[in-house]
From TrEMBL:
Record's keyword annotation contains Cytoplasm: no
One of the protein's GO biological processes: base-excision repair
Catalytic activity: Hydrolysis of DNA containing ring-opened 7-methylguanine residues, releasing 2,6-diamino-4-hydroxy-5-(N-methyl)formamidopyrimidine
Species: Microbacterium betulae
Domain Formamidopyrimidine-DNA glycosylase catalytic: 2-82
Record-level Gene Ontology MF annotations: 8-oxo-7,8-dihydroguanine DNA N-glycosylase activity; damaged DNA binding; DNA-(apurinic or apyrimidinic site) endonuclease activity; lyase activity; zinc ion binding
Protein name in UniProt: Fpg/Nei family DNA glycosylase
Amino acid sequence: MPEMPEVEGLARFLRGRVVGLGITKARVAAISALKTYDPPIDALVGARVEDARRHGKFVDLVLEGGLNLVFHLAKAGWLRWHAALPETVVKPGRSPIALRVGFDDGSGFDLTEAGTKKSLAVYVVRDPSDVPGIARLGPDPLDEGFDRDAFAALLEGRRTQIKGLLRDQSVIAGIGNAYSDEILHAARMSPYALAANLDGSEVDGLYEAMRTTLADAVATAAGKPPAELKDAKRRGMAVHARSGETCPVCGDTIRTVYFADTDFQYCPTCQTDGKILADRRLSRLLR
């Protein structure tokens, strides 16, 4: 799933390519992806792009006339950029394309989604806060005003495992499974640590790890076209999706904990005092 650094990269890419251009085409190929009906998708045609912004994991194309084209790529979605938009007609249900947008210089993009579980979401709204997922977002972890004390206040009293809390978009916006793995590894913290139990030095270390990890990832994504962002993300990972490989910090073997529909990676030496965490699938079978 694209997370904050990659979505920021997409927003910056679009800002540099389409601001000032007019939309000539907006065609929905996957009806399930379009979550709004007023304003209609056709209202985008003729509007010029004023900005491209990010809200958590949402991309927001700000258009003249008080319109916003907002999209969330979900788990298997992506943006495919075309310097020259194909002339082929996009037929509903016959391709991975969910939305095609064209501009008056001949360029454009497709929003695509792989797999059978369709979660990509497109919204045409008058205000980004009209999108429920944006309205619920917590603070952006890289905002200047989100300091260590603000972070500590979010953790206080929460009897929640820190892995899940970092991924909760209503608490902190933009962090998903991959970067929560990376942040916890950098902080040398167990994914199962309870937020409310962290002492001051642990909060300091986690906050610094979060800011540094995300800032570095945003810097890596900056300036890259969409086609290169996924590979750049994979190359930058120390533990996520590297099960069985060697930890770059201590040399231990990176391990995975599996759940019904997800998993996470960690280093036992760096994060759990050498303890191997139980595979939740096996634990469930042994009850």
